[in-house]
Amino acid sequence: MKITLNGWETGIRFVAGHFLPSIEKCNRLHGHNYALLLEIEGETEEDGIVIDFTKVKEAAGQIVKKLDHRMLLPSGGSSMTVRASASSFNVQFNGKEYLFPVADVVVLPVDNVSAEKLASYFADELLGSGIFGENIKSIRVGVAEGRGQEAWETRVLQ
Ligand SMILES: [Zn+2]
Fold it and tell me: What's this model's pTM, rounded to 2 decimal places?
């Protein structure tokens, strides 16, 4: 049995800024309306459900809330140089320089803040939340950068 959660419809959404240094148009500072999409496959348990939707929405909502109205920066590995001080992040690439207040930034454990890497990050975070019981076989986590433009990560649990 498969259950799905569409962040556009259920409010699992966030807005955030980013740039992708290696892509010409995307290497300028810009933002997206993002939504988290989720497919969960598993056995239906004796109580007639695969997993409680409320539990899934709470866990997913907490994960995206941390990124909402923030500038998203990679922790490393990309072609940009990020220098952190107590009050700000200095970001340089392609001869450009940005200064972001610490309070406005979330540094993610990715080498690139693409929809693909965000989907992997959300999959890690959801699996780490401990909400999935032994009846769950797989999860697919999608990140939409606006409607109709999505990246999906699949994780098999059994
Ligand atoms: Zn973008």
Answer: 0.94
Residues in contact with 131: Cβ distance below 8 Å, sequence separation at least 6, in sequence order: 51, 55, 56, 59
58 classed as catalytic: no
- Reply yes or no on whether 69 is catalytic: yes
Q: How far is the CA of 16 from the centre of ligand 1 (A)?
A: 9
The token duo for 89 is 């992040």
> Does residue 65 lie in a domain region?
yes
SS3 123: helix
Compute, in angstroms, the gap from residue 18 CA to the centroid of ligand 1: 6
What confidence tens digit (pLDDT) does each residue in 9-52 have? 999 999 999 998 877 777 899 999 999 999 999 999 999 999 99
pLDDT in tens, 130-147: 999 999 999 999 999 999
Identified catalytic residue from 9, 43, 69, 134: 69
Active site residue 145: yes
| In a domain? residue 104 | no
Domain CATH code at residue 129: 3.30.479.10
129 alpha carbon – ligand 1 mean position (Å): 27
- Ligand 1: centre distance to CA 30 (Å): 6
